[in-house]
Amino acid sequence: MSIYVSGGRILGSGGSIFSTPGGGTLPGAPTALTQNLQGQTVAFQNSASAPTPSSPNSQSFFFTQSSPAAGRTANGNVVYRSTTSATAGFAPIINTSSFTINGLAGAGTGPLASAGSIAQFTDSNATKCVGSTNGSQTQPPTVYYSANTYWYRVTLVDDLGQESAKSPTQQAILYWGGTLLTPSIQAYIIAHGADRVYSFDNMGADFNTAPPPVTLGAFCATTYNSTNGSPQSGSAFVIQCDFGGPSDFGVFLPVFSGAFSTWNYWAGAYTSLQYDWRSTTSVSSGDYSHEAVMSGDVHLTNASGGNNAVDMPSLPANTWQTVVWPFTTILKDFGASPYTNFVIQYAMYKWGIESHLSTASTLYFDRMLLPGTP
Question: What is the DSSP string of 118-170?
Fold first, then answer.
């Protein structure tokens, strides 16, 4: 059994005298660690020659600050980073507490935010966190816009030097009820006005150009602040997509071009894309398909040489359903003939929901994100 002593006092032990070496309950762990920017220092810092990032070694994040235990005060935060995986290899890179934590001396600048508030931090040494050099459709296939992957977790330190458990790894939110916007997007709205699509989503743009009503041969019309479709609890708006017909298919094409990165987003820290969807009519498998496209409008290929389009599942009418797409499915790319090997293309540019129906249809979307790891 280990005994911990401070100032002549026994504070705790490896048994159960107290819950921690510091003599009290650990602080709560920060929550909702979320990507704010990747490859740029302000929102919509687009490059004239895509896909060159403006700041390829910088990415920033925000999270909800946690609280220390009753009777204790918050002393600072510690940001951990791993280049190994979501579960191992984490080392501290930022320490704002006044204590040395896991070998990193504290800066003594205090917590990044008060309890319950939004805190932010930037990693300016995330070398090549987003890629800028394209690959090619070869056999064996190569990775387009290859970049380095970084995983992050955050802790809270109290006035005794006790550290909380680590937060889950970062998530990336594309759209959430039209209300959950990254701090950089909020700043952009304040500076430029809220009368744009940017005021409702974190993706930055959409390659749908057709205004309602949809006509034959046009892309689907997309509304990012729709109150139709019975928004879920906590959502003020949803995305409404009106597809054309007959004998037509529309495509919903959100694109990573402003909120997170320039022209592509390196998603190596994630394993899936998740979103909720709803239809005004019942949907059969194959009525719609999901397809990812790389910058330069390069389609991912399947084992037969066609586009890697995956059928959407069946869906009852007027029912919200969560779809989780593993990257091993939707970002799989077999490159060029003879399509015998594949890579996972983690450089996300845009992806589409295609309608294969012969009549007009309407879909609603909400809560699009790349989930983190607990």
Answer: EEEEEETT-TTSS------S-SS---TT-----EEEEEEEETT--BPPPPPPP
Name residue 37's amino acid: L
237-276 pLDDT per residue, tens:
998 888 876 555 666 777 776 666 667 889 999 999 999 9
- SS3 percent helix, strand, coil of the chain, rounded to 5, is 5, 35, 60
Tallying the residues shown for the chain, one arrives at 374
The tens digit of pLDDT for each residue in 42-52 reads 887 766 667 78
- Taking Cα atoms as reference points, which of 198, 199, 220, 217 lies closest to residue 209? 220
Is residue 174 within 8 Å of 182, Cβ to Cβ?
no
Structure tokens at 286: 């194959």
- The reported pTM is 0.89
Could you confirm whether domain 174-370 is CATH 2.60.120?
A: yes
Tell me the β-bridge partners of 243. Answer: 361
282 alpha carbon, distance to own chain's centre = 29
Q: Are 221 and 210 in contact (CB under 8 A)?
A: yes
Give the phi and the psi of residue 229 in degrees, each rounded to 5.
Answer: 75, 15
Classified as helix, coil or strand, 117 is coil
Locate the domains of the chain by residue range. 174-370
Query: Could you give the CA distance from residue 78 to residue 99 in angstroms, rounded to a whole number?
Result: 10
